[in-house]
Design goal:
By secondary structure, this protein is α+β, with helices and mostly antiparallel strands. Helix content is about 35%, strand content about 15%. It has one domain: Orthogonal Bundle (Arc Repressor Mutant, subunit A), CATH 1.10.10. It contains four helices and three strands. A three-stranded antiparallel sheet has the order 1-3-2.
Length: about 120
């Protein structure tokens, strides 16, 4: 079955509408290597952020298992002393329907460029 395209009133064929797709990393280790330094840089600013905000603004790939790996990344960063929990916010992620998400903030150690672990 082929899809038909409705021409514009002037007879031109509109450009196809391609949904925005996010890149997905092949494996967890490759993904961590890509995103780790970005999150350290954001933590060093000392501002409050969400994972999705950083991923969207920096055009980061999704991990192989987005439902679990984003949380694991933040747990690793917290365990290493780079971030701390800052509270909650409504998510900007389109698929989340504004559900509550954890917010994070870089620690003093992250702002100073060293881990507190």
């Amino acid at each position: 079955m082929t899809a038909t395209v409705q021409p514009e009133l002037d007879g031109s064929i509109p450009a196809p509408k391609i949904p925005a797709a996010r890149r997905r990393a092949e494996d967890y280790e490759t993904w961590i290597a890509e995103v780790w330094d970005v999150f350290l840089e954001v933590a060093a600013t000392g501002r409050t952020f969400t994972c999705y905000e950083v991923a969207r603004n920096r055009d980061l790939a999704d991990p192989p298992d987005p439902a679990h790996h984003w949380g694991r990344l933040m747990t690793l960063l917290k365990d290493e002393g780079y971030v701390r929990t800052a509270g909650w916010a409504c998510s900007d992620r389109p698929s989340s329907h504004h559900s509550g998400v954890r917010t994070w903030k870089g620690t003093a150690a992250a702002r100073a460029g060293r881990a507190a672990a």
